[in-house]
Amino acid sequence: MAQTNRDAFIKAKKFLSQFKDLEFYDSEIYLLLIKANNYLNFTELIKHFDENLVNPEYFFRNIQRIKEGEPIQYVTGEAPFFDLDIKVNSNVLIPRPETEGLTKFTIDYIKKENIPHKVIADVCTGSGCIAIYLKKHFPDSDIYATDKYKDVLEVAKSNFEKYQANIITLEGNRLEPLISRHIRLDVLISNPPYVEKMEDIEDKVKKYEPLNAIYIQDGTKFYESYFKHHKEVMKDKFFMAFEINYDQEEKLTFLIRNYFDLNKIQYKFVKDIFDKTRYLFIKGDYSENSK
Ligand SMILES: C[S@@+](CC[C@H](N)C(=O)[O-])C[C@H]1O[C@@H](n2cnc3c(N)ncnc32)[C@H](O)[C@@H]1O
Question: ∠189-106-236 over CA atoms, to 5°?
Fold first, then answer.
């Protein structure tokens, strides 16, 4: 029997409310109604709230996925990143607000300090969210997006197509795809896997998101390899921007001192919106006339 969007909303809310341990929001049900009706936005849904729901089977199947605990972003296939709707599936990490912070800080810093940015790489690109946002701000830059996994890069590519962003994807381990092609960067940005304590990862994340995007036995391994190979992959003047874990400042400081010429670089650790140390920025100048 036909039912209106309002009926479906009430039914879904009643159904989900039975499960005391389930955390869900009305906005998630609205989002699934928008999707099932193929509406553009919330305003359109409210306008048609007392009209028949177009695809009830699809809607209630998705409500069932929410009941199972699946993140809404995988159910809808989209996640917000600034003003973008990034396509996601279970092969890629859902973009996080902390990563918006990394991207925003990097863009602002490049603009404010006039940092060269002709060639940029987003290493460990996942959904490609960072790379697309950088391309939007620096349309004339050559932007590379790299990841170890083919099925991850498929998602990144579909986002690049969606936003008609001319970004070059390269498959391979850490810096290898760049070094093997003799690509030299002005800017390297990366949000690599960095969590080394399983207990720091929420159960829902463990169950649904790709573990190889988050967990790594040695949490500073990626940064160490970036530091170790910086002369092979970075130009003489360079900027590196990393998302890091809240407890890595001491170890990373040790590694920076080990791998860089401290007379040639400046580095700083920055906190995220949750007041946790979350970013590391390194600015280098190895050119002849630098001190
Ligand atoms: C924390 S996620 C970041 C995804 C995306 N950049 C973001 O910020 O939302 C880390 C990414 O690193 C990729 N990755 C894992 N191991 C890798 C490796 N050895 N080399 C390159 N990429 C790797 C994963 O596939 C995943 O997409």
Answer: 60
Work out the mean pLDDT of the chain and round it to a whole number: 96
Nearest C-alpha to atom 5 of ligand 1 is from which residue? 126
Do 266 and 145 share a domain, yes or no? yes
Same domain membership, residue 279 and residue 225 = yes
Kindly state whether residues 221 and 178 are assigned to the same domain.
yes
Residue to mutate, 73, 88, 124, 244, ligand 1, most ligand atoms under 8 Å from C-beta: 124
Interval 234-260 mean pLDDT:
98
| DSSP state string for 164-202 | T---EEEESSTTHHHHTTT--EEEEEE----B--GGGS-
Q: Among 105, 127, 148, 226, name the best residue to mutate to test ligand 1's pocket (greatest count of ligand atoms within 8 A of Cβ).
A: 148
Domains identified in the chain, total number: 2
Q: Is the CB of 173 under 6 A from ligand 1?
A: yes
DSSP string, 63-92: HHHHHHT--HHHHHTEEEETTEEEE--TTS
Nearest of 90, 86, 102 to residue 160 by alpha carbon: 86
pLDDT digits (tens, 9 = 90+) for 62-114: 999 999 999 999 999 999 999 999 999 999 999 999 999 999 999 999 999 99
Cβ atoms of 126 and 160 closer than 8 Å: no
